[in-house]
Design brief:
The structure holds two protein chains of two kinds. Chain A is built from twelve helices and no strands. By secondary structure, chain A is mainly alpha-helical. Chain B folds into two domains: about 220 residues, 3-Layer(aba) Sandwich (Rossmann fold), CATH 3.40.50; about 70 residues, Alpha-Beta Plaits (2-Layer Sandwich). Chain B has eleven helices and 13 strands. Chain B has a six-stranded mixed β-sheet with strand order 5-6-7-3-8-9, sandwiched between helices. A four-stranded antiparallel β-sheet of chain B has the order 11-12-10-13, covered by helices on one side. Chain B has a three-stranded antiparallel β-sheet with strand order 2-1-4, with helices on one face. In chain B, helix 3 packs across helix 4 and helix 4 packs across helix 5. The two termini of chain B are about 40 Å apart. The chains are: A mainly alpha, B alpha/beta.
Chain lengths: ~290, ~325
């Protein structure tokens, strides 16, 4: 029988609350995502359209600059919901390659290296782990979506000689809501697919495929069954419809195929639930070798 | 708070594959070693205890906490998994520091505790190098440092001596013994039976997912009654001693030691054996120099209960 001298002291200092630890993971995820030069390159690319739009807003609000550029008509560029719909669409689709590149770096590496047991052997839950990664991806995508969109909106409000801001507040709300819906969807989808495809390049491809392949299937369904409901598999179509309605922009030429907003919302929620189920099945500290 | 680790009728099945079956155990503070062949369920038992896998049946309590309550559990528990897997691209220092940040320490405290744990496992100089470039022994050390860094009450170490050179192994054992003496709860799985003898207060023998025995090595050995105990007696007249013992005790085997200054005796009744030996020594017929049990070690009980040497080294 050993005689124990109980001099060992358990750590009894202050600890941060559980929610704060999620931000530790988010911070490391953010660093991991942005440690690649390709991420920086994609980010730079994503900022080019806002610069072009910024110049457009400047020209639209500055007759002297227009004249110097040789544009006589004041109608050359109208800054309205249609303009911001273009901004929103372009930024949203630029966010896709960025999400496809960053998401696998956040999760595939941990799974490929079997690092989950060591990470989850901490006072952090599986939900906390996924939430930390989600925040990292969400924050990264925010930098190229709603942040530049709203900055452009603010600049237009500032530049316009008319009382533009109050009249067009719906555009700002639509930009924010439309981009938030898109990047939440993209982040959850990206993390879910990355958790199932360990090879990072394949995971990047899988994210693109998940967005565009169902659109093709939906097109076949629409063509064969002669029903508009096949468009519920067409994510680009659904998102464009949703963004148009959120911004109050005129419906596109394909308005005859318009889908109810409730159906679009239901499909997006279902896709998010499926992604969460995929994450739940995969993000486990499983060590398959028994010893 | 309860100071025991308790398994109550715990089973774990991976689909149709048995992990562990109907394990009931109560593990007090000190060093407890899980011993069993590959695939016996040691890692499963550790993963169940740490909540990394959920039991199919039964209940587990670690110092009064349920393993499902991972935020609370991992504040008091440090786990060193057997697998050589780390987050990509980080160095030893970052692993420990990040781990402490996840435990909720402030940066200043995490810095201090990182330094302390790296010094404890003597990995100070290599800490700034990428873990990918570490030797197997250094990886073991950094895992151990990560497990002890936050000053847990319970330390679960899966094969912590694998891959260590003799010097590092001795250092690790000394560290375990020190932590055990200080009152920490250590649960270690090991194949190295000689070292199990040296470090363990208790052993838990497991094979094929079933619990075979638990308790101190001596207790377990005494309960294996169908295997007569072997005792080495060093004396001046081993042949005479063997003859005397055979005449009065339940001795079943005698074997002279190679130097002919001792005899190995197997007996079915160890208590009567020792009392007879006292009488013989008191009569002065044989001058007894030393008496030592020859098979109350982990290797022997492993052989008797599990049936092979288990790859003991």
């Amino acid at each position: 029988m050993s005689v124990y001298k109980h001099i060992y002291r358990v750590y009894d200092g202050k600890v941060t609350p559980a929610w704060a630890r999620v931000f530790v993971l988010a911070r490391y995820g953010f660093n991991e995502g942005w440690s690649s030069k390709i991420t920086i390159g994609l980010f730079t690319l994503c900022l080019l359209p806002p610069i072009v739009f910024l110049i457009g807003i400047y020209l639209a609000n500055n007759p002297i600059a227009r004249a110097l550029m040789g544009f006589r008509s004041p109608q050359i560029l109208t800054i309205d919901a249609g303009f911001f719909l273009k901004v929103l669409e372009i930024q949203s689709w630029f966010a896709l390659p960025l999400a496809s590149w960053i998401a696998p770096r956040l999760i595939s590496f941990d799974l490929a290296d079997n690092a989950l047991p060591i990470l989850l052997s901490h006072p952090i839950s599986r939900f906390g782990y996924v939430l930390g990664k989600f925040i990292a991806l969400f924050a990264s995508l925010s930098l190229v979506t709603w942040v530049p969109c709203l900055l452009l909106f603010v600049y237009q409000s500032y530049s316009s000689p008319l009382p533009w801001f109050a009249v067009n507040l719906q555009i700002a709300c639509g930009l924010l809501a439309g981009e938030l819906i898109w990047i939440v969807f993209l982040s959850i989808l990206g993390l879910a697919l990355s958790s199932w495809v360990k090879w990072r390049v394949m995971a990047t491809g899988a994210i693109f495929a998940a967005v565009f392949v169902p659109a093709g299937v939906g097109g076949i369904v629409t063509g064969v069954l002669r029903t508009k409901w096949g468009f519920l598999l067409n994510i680009p179509f659904m998102m464009t419809s949703l963004w148009q309605r959120l911004l109050g922009a005129p419906e596109s030429a394909r308005a005859s195929f318009s889908l109810p907003t409730e159906s679009i919302a239901t499909m997006l929620v279902l896709a998010c639930c499926l992604s969460i189920a995929m994450l739940n099945a995969r993000i486990r500290a499983r060590e398959v070798v028994r010893g | 708070m309860n100071d025991q680790i308790i398994f109550e009728d715990v089973s774990k099945f991976y689909g149709e594959v048995l992990g562990v079956n109907r394990i009931s155990l109560s593990i007090p503070p000190g060093i407890t070693t899980l011993v069993g062949p590959n695939g016996s369920g040691k890692t499963t038992l550790m993963n169940l205890m740490t909540g990394l896998v959920q039991p199919s049946n039964g209940r587990i309590s670690v110092m009064g906490l349920s393993p499902t309550n991972s935020p609370e559990l991992f504040r008091i528990l440090g786990y060193c998994a057997q697998f050589d897997s780390f987050p990509r691209g980080i160095n030893g220092w970052e692993l420990i520091f990040d781990s402490l940040m996840l435990h909720g320490m402030s940066e200043a405290e995490a810095f201090e505790l990182t330094q302390e744990s790296l010094e404890r496992v003597q990995l100070g100089e290599a800490a700034q190098r990428k873990i990918a470039g570490y030797s197997k022994g250094m990886r073991q050390k950094v895992r151990l440092a990560q497990a002890i860094a936050h000053h847990p009450r319970v330390l679960v170490l899966d094969e912590p001596l694998n891959g260590l050179d003799p010097m590092a192994r001795a250092e690790s054992i000394a560290l375990f013994q020190e932590l055990g003496r200080q009152g920490m709860h250590l649960l270690i799985s090991s194949h190295i039976l000689d070292e199990v003898d040296r470090i363990s207060d208790r052993v838990v023998l497991i094979t094929g997912g079933y619990l075979v025995a638990e308790g101190s090595i001596k207790q377990v050995r005494q309960e294996v009654r169908e295997k007569p105990m072997q005792v080495l007696i060093r004396c001046d007249q081993p042949a005479l001693l063997a003859a005397k013992m055979f005449s009065v005790n339940h001795c079943v085997e005698a074997r002279l030691n190679t130097d002919e200054r001792g005899v190995f005796l197997r007996t079915g009744d160890i208590d009567q054996f020792y009392s007879m030996l006292n009488e013989i020594a008191a009569e002065g017929l044989v001058k007894v120099e030393s008496v030592a049990p020859a098979d109350d070690d982990a290797s022997a009980i492993y052989q008797y209960l599990i049936g092979s040497d288990g790859g003991a080294s």
